[in-house]
Amino acid sequence: MFDTDQGKTLLHLARAAIAKELGFVSHELPRSDWLEQLGATFVTLILHGRLRGCIGSLEAYRPLIDDVRQNAVASAMRDPRFPPLSKEEFAEVVVEVSLLSAPQPIRFSSEADALAQLHPGRDGVILEYGAQRATYLPQVWAQLPDPRSFIANLKSKAGLPEDFWSDDIRLSHYTVQKWSEGKQHG
């Protein structure tokens, strides 16, 4: 578990990386040992209460400092659902960083069995079928509190019909520790 000060550092790193990409001057933070550990993060941007970008890593494969910076820039500039973030929007956007635990496979015998094993509000979920893959962070449960709707929407996000099911679907779950500018969450 990371503490509030470390969360603030991750938020600063994310905002500074976006600022630098937009051409603003931002000061660099010194590298610390804990930032050199491998980490998987998602950086979410919220503008006027609405999603404005969200890109991340499902598995830890690079130092946390690099993962946060690169996901922040990708969220601001390369989320295919949105145009690149403008300098004007940057002043008003709220940055959120989610640090993911290692994904754990969910073992199930049917869709109903899989749905029964989900923990709304706590689980982030990865759905994989062949080359198709999608995830929802635990925060998405706020909009989709019913497990059946949550998974149906996740299937759609992966490019599958909402009512699709196959024994070849793979599900994994993870938890996050989340920090958002202006408020802190565990």
How would you characterize this protein structure?
By secondary structure, the protein is α+β, with helices and mostly antiparallel strands. It has 2 domains: 4-100, 2-Layer Sandwich (Glycoprotein, Type 4 Pilin), CATH 3.30.700.20; 104-174, Dna Ligase, domain 1, CATH 3.30.1490.150. It has 5 helices and 9 strands. Strands 2-1-3-8-9 form a 5-stranded antiparallel β-sheet, with helices on one face. A hairpin with a 2-residue loop joins strand 8 and strand 9. Helix 1 (4-21) crosses helix 2 (64-77).
Task: Annotate the secondary structure layout.
Elements: H1 4-21, E1 41-47, E2 50-56, H2 64-77, H3 87-90, E3 94-100, E4 104-105, H4 111-116, E5 124-129, E6 132-136, H5 147-157, E7 170-174, E8 176-180, E9 183-184
Antiparallel strand pairs: 1-2, 1-3, 3-8, 4-7, 5-6, 5-7, 8-9
State the helical fraction: 25-40%
Instruction: Give the total of beta strands.
Output: 9
* CATH class descriptor name of the largest domain: Alpha Beta
Radius of gyration: 17 Å
Mean pLDDT comes to 94
Largest sheet: 5 strands, antiparallel
Question: What characteristic shape results from the CA principal axes?
Answer: globular
Q: What letter string, H or E per element, gives the SSE order?
A: HEEHHEEHEEHEEE
For the biggest β-sheet, the strand order reads: 2-1-3-8-9
Class of secondary structure makeup: alpha+beta
How many distinct folded domains? 2
Examine the coordinates and then state which fold CATH places here, giving the name of the CATH topology of the largest domain. Glycoprotein, Type 4 Pilin
Tell me which CATH architecture of the largest domain applies here: 2-Layer Sandwich
Number of helices: 5
